[in-house]
Structures are given as structure tokens and as C-alpha cells.
Amino acid sequence: MRKLLVIGASGKLVRYVVLSLIKDYELFLQCNRRCVELAEFLSSAGFDVGSANIHLIRHDFMEEGVESLFRKLSVLTSVLDASILIEPVFNQVPLKELREELIRDVVYTDLVVPLTLIKVLIYFMTSDPSVIVVLTDLTPLRGSRFYEGLSPSLPVVASSAALHTIVREAPHYLPSNIRVFGVALDWVGVPSKKLPSSATSRAMSVGEVANFIKELLSNPLRFPSGTLIELSRLGRNP
């Protein structure tokens, strides 16, 4: 069975992606404060977190750093076929209220963490092809006011733009067997999350997003490595 690492697996969208992949992969699921919630979600769907194919890895990047995660992972496996990474932090702090510590924390979690994860994944990803999917947003492509009702802080927008650049340039730095893709998401109708009325008509379902990512992992030759894919009902543009 192929092996997949998911960062931020307890996220309200990502857990549905996990659910769509659970029969096809041995899963290594990083979580932090909501590990119990994730376990209960999977259990309610009929899957045993204590099984041999589902591993929860509790890890706090702010407290423990990034590379220490892979020491925990190496106890469970020495190889990975794929990985899904996310931007974990979103805030709407106005520029005048930003403090240096908050800026540092946002840039660390939204940029330093995924970049360091990609670097370390090299040592686990030996199959050809291996796949890294980075879930991100559309603000670097559509502007900071694209998501009506949301005002992402400047550090969030800047980190997202840098992450897009990392996706595009990563193929020049990674071994040729590793394929990297960014998936920039429009609104998604996640259960338990209320959307602005203007977003409801264009929001994708969690099933649409999960199916797209599943297809991308199954057929990574569909796009050139380094492609930034806009996933939206308004149009999908690599």
C-alpha cells in the first residue's frame, strides 16, 4: 500500500480529503490541538485510528520545530509516496496592530514550515513518481480582497505569495522523481462553516476538492511539476 503524509490533517477541509484517501493509502496524519477531534471524525466514518493503516502524529511546529516531526515519522516508516501540505495560519490583524512577534509567527508557520517540510521530504520520497501537493489560496493570483468578507493580514498574503513561488521553483531544486503541485482553492462549502452569501453559489463542495486531489495523486503526470492549479468553479487554470 502506498504511504501518504498529511500535514494539518485535523483541518475541517483536510479531514474530508483524508477520508477520501483512507482506503488507498497508509496514512500518517500530523495534527496538534484537534487530534482527538480528528480521531472521533474518522471513527464516526467507520475507520479505526488504531489500525495499522492510520497513524496520528501529534506535533506542534511552534514548540517543536519542523525537522523533529520526521524523527517521529521515521519510527513509523522510512518511505513516503506522497504528501499533502497546507498553510496552517490565517489571521486578519490590521497593519497598524501587527507586532513583530505575530509577523514572525505567521511567516514561520505559513512559509518556513512548508519550505522545511519540502526539504526534509527528499529523504523519504524515493519512488518515481513521488508527489507533494501544497494546498494554498488564490490571493497571490487574485488579490487580497478576492475572498469577500475576509481581510487577510499582510503577513498572510506575503507568505502565500512566497509559497506560490516555492511551488513553481521547487522542481529546479528537488530530485527529478519528486513532483510538486500547488492547489489554490476558491471558497469551499465545508460542513460547520458558514460562508458569506455571495460565496455560496460559487463554493465547491468538499467532495469536489477531495476528488480532485485524489485524481492528482493518482495521475501526477497530468500536469508539469511546479504547476500552480486554480481550483474554482469560476475556472481551473494551471
List the helices and strands and how they pair.
Blueprint: E1 2-6, H1 14-21, E2 25-31, H2 35-44, E3 54-58, H3 61-64, H4 67-76, E4 82-86, H5 100-121, E5 130-137, H6 139-142, H7 154-169, E6 178-185, E7 188-189, H8 197-200, E8 204-205, H9 206-218, E9 227-231
Parallel strand pairs: 1-2, 1-4, 2-3, 4-5, 5-6, 6-9, 7-8
What does this protein look like?
The structure is a single chain. The protein is an alpha/beta fold. It has 9 helices and 9 strands. Strands 3-2-1-4-5-6-9 form a 7-stranded parallel beta sheet, sandwiched between helices. The chain has a two-stranded parallel ribbon with strand order 7-8. The longest helix is centred in the middle third of the chain and has 22 residues, at 100-121. It is globular, with a radius of gyration of 17 Å.
Q: Which sequence of strands runs across the widest sheet? A: 3-2-1-4-5-6-9
Q: Proportion of β residues?
A: 15-25%
Number of E-type strands: 9
Q: What is the tally of helical segments?
A: 9
User: What is the H-and-E element order?
Assistant: EHEHEHHEHEHHEEHEHE
Output the structural class.
alpha/beta
